[in-house]
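Work Package 4 report. The design task specified in the project plan requires that, given a folded chain encoded as structure tokens, an amino acid be chosen for each position. We show below one input record used in the internal validation round.
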């Protein structure tokens, strides 16, 4: 099928994410049935919401098995299927990796500027007792989902300012009229964090209640126990299929998908080792050697984390972090190279944020950065003390830092950072928090002056916009510069990608120099799965944190699993 593209976000860059796994396109004949038990990349976190109106970052991860979107990643382009892409990024799809999901084709038109999207016909919502009768998906569902999202009191400011209106000329056509061109147009309403399409009936029944969940996707949410599991069961009305060995197979293959929520790292490692988990998507390097020895049959994929690690320093409240000399000093006071070599045992990159190395020309290596940026990654406690003294803190200071107890890496790493700071007179009061309270503190702007966290790279434009633009939710440092904001807006309105790349490289250098964060190394993560998991090569997302279409294409070789004693 030929897709009419217009101007799409991104580039045809390959995602070179670590070691390419062995080919996932199995020569074995697909099998139906069975249950797939998964410890996902967010194994410690329960669902935060099931209602798209809440503008929740994790929504696609928990609803993406049953709520579909206009576009998705094209898994036929996966490395494990002979293609160029790893499909690991949290919110980045290169141009040649995008295909229609609920959209069948799309085309840009002028006067007025608009994108016309032809929708797939014959897609059905299954019947859901007490919620809705089975019916066909139409353009009215797209319009309803979009209009409800943009009127939510929780919407992100300015996220859809480029959209003038949405019209439904017929039941299988949706038209987005644009006020002006926006380089993230397809990401923002087509396959991004806030793009799911759903039925009005689900909202009328109560979208916040998981028991009312229903969608057109390959699975339906059939059980949810907070802190324990999400269970998704096969949707017999699902429309999509997969060609394997020249033969077409109706999806999905497995009867059930179960997300296991496990708070303790040792427990989830044991669950993988004993076969209670079929896939564990996020494994720290410290556990890899022991797993390879105890369970040599496991298959592996290694990938550079798609989230930046940093300590945000609040610039929007009174305190030492308002002074750039203090922020630069705290960067120089940490021996980041030693963290890579000793703490991560080499399983990390010194510099890989805010742009990610897999973004091709958008990423500028540290070696090519100006001296002022390189200085921030060079251990120099003497200069750090000098800058602190110049800023009025010759004896240092004490500050509170909040960290999420849900992240074992951060819980281990932050005390090491604190030890470096003690050498220059800065003392950290570390406050571990459960994830809900941790996220709430940032979103309500009541978080501590220091805030130790991960933040997704997302894509080459969003990584800058969400983290450093005035008033953005994911700007924990409270960085604000009207001139910087204006430059970012110009990036979004620039059609030529080569020009956007140049502009984004300049914005990246500028924000690195301003040092709103203590920039820290980015670790490599490992994904492991048992050999009975077929048609899989370590892929994690085919949209913004959305794995549903990946799981729909996996089957379980139940005879192999039984022979292996599980």
């Amino acid at each position: 099928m030929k897709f009419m593209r217009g101007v799409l976000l991104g580039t045809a860059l390959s995602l070179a994410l670590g070691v390419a796994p062995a080919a996932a396109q199995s020569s074995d004949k697909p099998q139906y049935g069975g249950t797939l038990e998964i410890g996902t990349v967010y194994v410690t976190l329960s669902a935060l919401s099931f209602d798209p109106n809440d503008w929740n970052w994790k929504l696609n991860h928990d609803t993406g098995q049953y709520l579909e979107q206009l576009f998705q990643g094209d898994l036929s382009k996966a490395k494990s299927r002979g293609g160029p892409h790893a499909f690991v990024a949290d919110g980045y799809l290169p141009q040649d990796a995008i295909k229609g999901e609920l959209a069948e084709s799309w085309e840009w038109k002028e006067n007025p500027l608009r994108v016309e999207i032809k929708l797939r016909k014959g897609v059905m919502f299954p019947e859901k007792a007490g919620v809705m009768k089975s019916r066909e998906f139409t353009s009215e569902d797209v319009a309803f989902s979009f209009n409800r999202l943009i009127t939510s009191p929780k919407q992100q400011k300015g996220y859809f300012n480029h959209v003038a209106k949405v019209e439904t000329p017929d039941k299988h056509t949706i038209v987005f009229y644009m006020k002006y061109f926006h380089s993230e147009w397809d990401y923002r309403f087509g396959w991004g964090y806030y793009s799911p399409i759903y039925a009005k009936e689900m909202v009328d029944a109560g979208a916040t209640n998981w028991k009312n969940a229903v969608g057109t996707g390959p699975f339906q949410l059939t059980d949810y126990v907070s802190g324990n599991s999400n269970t998704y069961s096969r949707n017999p009305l699902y429309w999509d299929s997969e060609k394997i060995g020249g033969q077409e197979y109706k999806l999905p293959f497995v009867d059930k998908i179960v997300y296991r929520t496990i708070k303790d790292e040792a427990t989830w490692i044991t669950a993988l080792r004993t076969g209670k988990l079929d896939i564990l998507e996020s494994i720290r390097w410290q556990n890899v050697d022991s797993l390879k020895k105890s369970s040599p049959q496991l298959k592996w994929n290694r990938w550079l984390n798609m989230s930046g690690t940093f300590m945000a320093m609040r610039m929007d409240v009174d305190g030492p972090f308002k002074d750039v000399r203090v922020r630069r000093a705290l960067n120089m006071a940490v021996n980041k190279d030693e963290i890579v070599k000793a703490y991560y045992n080499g399983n990390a990159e010194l510099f890989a944020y805010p742009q990610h190395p897999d973004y091709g020309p958008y990423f500028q290596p540290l070696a090519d950065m100006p001296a002022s940026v390189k200085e921030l990654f060079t251990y120099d406690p003497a200069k750090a003390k000098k800058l602190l003294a110049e800023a009025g803190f010759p004896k240092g200071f004490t500050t509170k830092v909040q960290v999420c107890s849900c992240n074992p890496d951060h819980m281990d790493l932050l005390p090491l950072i604190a030890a470096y700071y003690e050498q220059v007179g800065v003392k950290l009061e570390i406050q571990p928090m459960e994830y809900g309270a941790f996220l709430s503190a940032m979103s309500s702007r009541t978080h501590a002056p220091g805030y130790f966290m991960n933040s997704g790279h997302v894509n080459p434009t969003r990584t800058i916009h969400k983290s450093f633009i005035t008033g953005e939710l994911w700007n924990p440092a409270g960085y604000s510069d009207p001139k910087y904001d204006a430059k970012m807006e110009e990036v979004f309105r620039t059609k030529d990608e080569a020009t956007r790349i140049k502009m984004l490289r300049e914005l990246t250098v500028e924000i690195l120099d301003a040092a709103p964060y203590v920039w820290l190394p980015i670790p490599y993560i490992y994904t492991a799965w048992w050999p009975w998991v077929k048609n899989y090569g370590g892929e994690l997302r085919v949209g913004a944190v959305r794995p549903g279409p990946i799981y729909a294409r996996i089957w379980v070789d139940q005879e192999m699993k039984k022979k292996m004693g599980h």
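The chain is about 25% helix and 20% strand. Validation will be extended to a larger panel in the next phase.
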